[in-house]
């Protein structure tokens, strides 16, 4: 049941996108988001869509798998669509009880809908093609210059690595405890909100206890291997910048420039 | 309660790169009052299989019949199934959550919607069955008990539902020898005295050999071998090739036999072996 969540998941195949430097992918994602929010008309969406299609195809991640990741966010997309369609003032083309559907509203709703979908697919490209370890490595490197101002880049990255590392473990644990309580007749799915909240106690108490136990054990294990912060640490895999990274960087810059030019 | 498994297949994450076939067309029959030992190396599908017995997992295809009723059907009341088939997970003490032992053991019966008196009766009974002193521990927090005691509280929590079938997934993992023997004795007692159908998952071939009527060997999602312990443990090479073993004492008897001594090699317990060796020495 909890295993169905694909958002933020890594899809392990070998592709040119997977091999890109994580730093490039992180920066490219931010550039992509910026470009997406600068889009003012449907033509510019064409550029973004083209860029996204090319990267999806290159990444070898099957499209249905990505769409499955959209499912949990479907409600948000529908909600945005609905609010836009009814709440925008302008030329009325249809009346639904007290609600007016305007021409501007429809356009606005479609516009926002596309933006959301492109945003979700585009950003999930980052996590789908970058393993959590690479991702945090990239973040640490990107934050490196900030160390001078006292930002604990390594510690932050380490915290993120650990958090990411334990998401599947905790999900598994949740699944296990849920099943154990269900085997004792617990019901997590029916009843009103108050009853449902109450029914979570048998799940949350054991889960917290086990999370603290795990944290304790992990701290001990790290200590036993003489872990200490970032200074003078070397790494197994050094990040390096290749020709393909430069190409990717140029491509996303071209996208941004195209979108900006389109605005004027 | 009889359990019949027909052509059961379970696939995890179908259609994704993480797709794995955990159970592969399994056919099994478990009779009322049987004591079954389920063995297999890690990842052979044991845990997946037992979660089908009380409807925690739905099969990808196939049927599970409980007394002739297919529990994979849509309108089956799963709570009733779960009352009849008690499942004790690995490290069940990790599921404890209440402030007192009494409340925790009462969680199952409470969910069944029983009356106060009935709950009280069942909790007392269940704690007695696992050898916990009701008066001493009922008001204590489960978290201040020892590991072995905590495990027994968790098992009592399942027994308080009065299941007809009890499934235990490695109930002795991580316990000291004494705790292990006590729990196994109590399980044996449940089978003998209350004719409960028991399915025991264990990695200890000794425990399996000593306790069960019939063994089911799982390998790569299939039931590779089933039969009485004496039959199953004859297949030493096969068992070893799938990462299992036979009881130590069986190895000893085989060695003696291979050295040319006229002893039986299909012995499973130390008691049996002792007798056989004594007989052999007397004959000499």
Automatic annotation (TrEMBL), chain A:
<comment type="function">
    <text>Transmembrane (T) component of an energy-coupling factor (ECF) ABC-transporter complex. Unlike classic ABC transporters this ECF transporter provides the energy necessary to transport a number of different substrates.</text>
</comment>
<dbReference type="GO" id="GO:0005886">
    <property type="term" value="C:plasma membrane"/>
</dbReference>
<dbReference type="InterPro" id="IPR051611">
    <property type="entry name" value="ECF_transporter_component"/>
</dbReference>
<dbReference type="GO" id="GO:0022857">
    <property type="term" value="F:transmembrane transporter activity"/>
</dbReference>
<keyword id="KW-1003">Cell membrane</keyword>
<feature type="transmembrane region" description="Helical">
    <location>
        <begin position="107"/>
        <end position="128"/>
    </location>
</feature>
<protein>
    <recommendedName>
        <fullName>Energy-coupling factor transporter transmembrane protein EcfT</fullName>
    </recommendedName>
</protein>
<feature type="transmembrane region" description="Helical">
    <location>
        <begin position="30"/>
        <end position="58"/>
    </location>
</feature>
<feature type="transmembrane region" description="Helical">
    <location>
        <begin position="243"/>
        <end position="261"/>
    </location>
</feature>
<dbReference type="InterPro" id="IPR024919">
    <property type="entry name" value="EcfT"/>
</dbReference>
<dbReference type="InterPro" id="IPR003339">
    <property type="entry name" value="ABC/ECF_trnsptr_transmembrane"/>
</dbReference>
<keyword id="KW-0813">Transport</keyword>
<feature type="transmembrane region" description="Helical">
    <location>
        <begin position="70"/>
        <end position="87"/>
    </location>
</feature>
<comment type="subunit">
    <text>Forms a stable energy-coupling factor (ECF) transporter complex composed of 2 membrane-embedded substrate-binding proteins (S component), 2 ATP-binding proteins (A component) and 2 transmembrane proteins (T component).</text>
</comment>
<keyword id="KW-0472">Membrane</keyword>
<dbReference type="Pfam" id="PF02361">
    <property type="entry name" value="CbiQ"/>
</dbReference>
<keyword id="KW-0812">Transmembrane</keyword>
<keyword id="KW-1133">Transmembrane helix</keyword>
<comment type="similarity">
    <text>Belongs to the energy-coupling factor EcfT family.</text>
</comment>
From TrEMBL, chain B:
<dbReference type="InterPro" id="IPR003593">
    <property type="entry name" value="AAA+_ATPase"/>
</dbReference>
<dbReference type="GO" id="GO:0016887">
    <property type="term" value="F:ATP hydrolysis activity"/>
</dbReference>
<protein>
    <recommendedName>
        <fullName>Energy-coupling factor transporter ATP-binding protein EcfA2</fullName>
        <ecNumber>7.-.-.-</ecNumber>
    </recommendedName>
</protein>
<feature type="domain" description="ABC transporter">
    <location>
        <begin position="3"/>
        <end position="245"/>
    </location>
</feature>
<dbReference type="Pfam" id="PF00005">
    <property type="entry name" value="ABC_tran"/>
</dbReference>
<dbReference type="GO" id="GO:0005524">
    <property type="term" value="F:ATP binding"/>
</dbReference>
<comment type="similarity">
    <text>Belongs to the ABC transporter superfamily. Energy-coupling factor EcfA family.</text>
</comment>
<comment type="function">
    <text>ATP-binding (A) component of a common energy-coupling factor (ECF) ABC-transporter complex.</text>
</comment>
<keyword id="KW-0472">Membrane</keyword>
<dbReference type="InterPro" id="IPR017871">
    <property type="entry name" value="ABC_transporter-like_CS"/>
</dbReference>
<keyword id="KW-0378">Hydrolase</keyword>
<keyword id="KW-1003">Cell membrane</keyword>
<dbReference type="InterPro" id="IPR027417">
    <property type="entry name" value="P-loop_NTPase"/>
</dbReference>
<comment type="subunit">
    <text>Forms a stable energy-coupling factor (ECF) transporter complex composed of 2 membrane-embedded substrate-binding proteins (S component), 2 ATP-binding proteins (A component) and 2 transmembrane proteins (T component).</text>
</comment>
<keyword id="KW-0547">Nucleotide-binding</keyword>
<keyword id="KW-0813">Transport</keyword>
<dbReference type="GO" id="GO:0042626">
    <property type="term" value="F:ATPase-coupled transmembrane transporter activity"/>
</dbReference>
<keyword id="KW-1278">Translocase</keyword>
<dbReference type="InterPro" id="IPR050095">
    <property type="entry name" value="ECF_ABC_transporter_ATP-bd"/>
</dbReference>
<dbReference type="InterPro" id="IPR003439">
    <property type="entry name" value="ABC_transporter-like_ATP-bd"/>
</dbReference>
<dbReference type="InterPro" id="IPR030946">
    <property type="entry name" value="EcfA2"/>
</dbReference>
<dbReference type="GO" id="GO:0006824">
    <property type="term" value="P:cobalt ion transport"/>
</dbReference>
């Amino acid at each position: 049941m909890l295993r169905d969540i694909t958002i933020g998941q890594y899809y392990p195949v070998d592709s040119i996108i997977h091999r890109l430097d994580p730093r490039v992918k992180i920066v490219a994602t931010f550039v992509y988001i910026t470009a997406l929010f600068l889009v003012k008309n449907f033509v510019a969406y064409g550029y973004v869509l083209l860029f996204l299609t090319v990267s999806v195809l290159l990444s070898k991640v099957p499209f249905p798998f990505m769409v499955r990741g959209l499912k949990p966010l479907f409600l948000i997309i529908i909600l945005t669509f609905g609010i836009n369609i009814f709440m925008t003032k302008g030329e009325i083309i249809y009346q639904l009880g007290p609600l007016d559907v305007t021409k501007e509203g429809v356009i606005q709703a479609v516009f926002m809908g596309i933006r959301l979908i492109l945003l979700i697919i585009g950003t999930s490209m980052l996590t789908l093609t970058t393993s959590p370890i690479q991702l945090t490595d990239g973040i640490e490197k990107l934050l490196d210059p900030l160390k001078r101002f006292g930002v604990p880049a390594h510690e932050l990255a380490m915290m993120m690595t650990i958090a990411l590392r334990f998401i599947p473990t905790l999900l598994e644990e949740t699944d296990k405890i849920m099943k154990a309580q269900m085997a004792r007749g617990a019901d997590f799915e029916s009843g009103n909100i108050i009853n449902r909240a109450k029914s979570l106690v048998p799940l949350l108490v054991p889960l917290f206890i086990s999370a603290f136990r795990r944290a304790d054990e992990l701290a001990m294990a790290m200590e036993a291997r003489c872990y200490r912060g970032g200074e003078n640490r070397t790494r197994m895999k050094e990040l390096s910048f290749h020709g393909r990274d430069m190409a990717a960087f140029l491509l996303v810059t071209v996208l941004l420039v195209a979108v900006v030019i389109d605005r004027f | 309660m009889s359990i019949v498994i027909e052509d059961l297949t379970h696939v995890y994450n179908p259609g994704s790169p993480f797709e794995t076939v955990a159970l592969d067309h399994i056919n099994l029959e478990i009779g009322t009052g049987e004591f079954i030992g389920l063995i297999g190396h890690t990842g052979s599908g044991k845990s997946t299989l037992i979660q089908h017995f009380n409807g925690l997992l739905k099969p990808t295809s196939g049927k599970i019949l409980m007394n002739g009723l297919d529990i994979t059907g849509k309108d089956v009341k799963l709570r009733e199934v779960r009352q009849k088939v008690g499942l004790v997970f690995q490290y069940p003490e990790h599921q404890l959550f209440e402030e007192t032992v009494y409340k925790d053991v009462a969680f199952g019966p409470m969910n069944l919607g029983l009356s106060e008196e009935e709950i009280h009766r069942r909790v007392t009974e269940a704690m007695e069955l696992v050898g916990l002193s009701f008066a001493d521990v009922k008001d204590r927090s489960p978290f201040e008990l020892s590991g072995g005691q905590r495990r027994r509280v968790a098992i009592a929590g399942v027994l308080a539902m009065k299941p007809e079938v009890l499934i235990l997934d490695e109930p002795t993992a991580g316990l000291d020898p004494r705790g292990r023997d006590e729990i196994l004795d109590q399980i044996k007692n449940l089978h003998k005295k209350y004719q409960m159908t028991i399915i025991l998952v264990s990695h200890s071939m000794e425990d399996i050999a000593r306790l069960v009527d019939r063994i089911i060997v799982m390998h790569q999602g299939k039931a590779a071998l089933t039969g009485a312990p004496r039959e199953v443990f004859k297949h030493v090479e096969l068992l070893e090739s799938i990462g299992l073993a036979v009881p130590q004492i069986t190895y000893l008897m085989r060695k003696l036999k291979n050295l040319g001594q006229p002893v039986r090699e299909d012995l499973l317990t130390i008691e049996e072996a002792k007798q056989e060796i004594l007989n052999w020495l007397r004959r000499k």
